[in-house]
Amino acid sequence: MDSKDIDVLRDIHQIIEVPHAAQELLVAERTPTLSMALPSCELLNSKWSELRTTIWELSRYIGIGLEKLAEYINDGRKTRIYALAMIINPCVKVEWMKSRGWMLDAVASY
Length: 110
Known about the structure:
Elements: H1 3-28, H2 37-54, H3 59-77, H4 80-88, H5 95-99, H6 105-108
Helix pairs in contact: 1-2, 2-3
């Protein structure tokens, strides 16, 4: 394996480390963590967008991941269970949604 191969593997590791960290956040608690699903997706979106500009050789593949993530987030914003989980959880409440300038469609319908 030459140095170029090692550099590519390091880049790939950086990319897959981000969703791994988000997944660890969701399963680390002993309490239900559905309320953290959308915030962790937002964090994943932010980090991948950052990596997309720094690891330009793999930006196409990061973009594919970002598109799928955007679909998941948009679907989640329309689902009442996410909204209820975020409101019920005392750590999250509605403040997280308001602080990002978007209210879940499911909450707005009440």
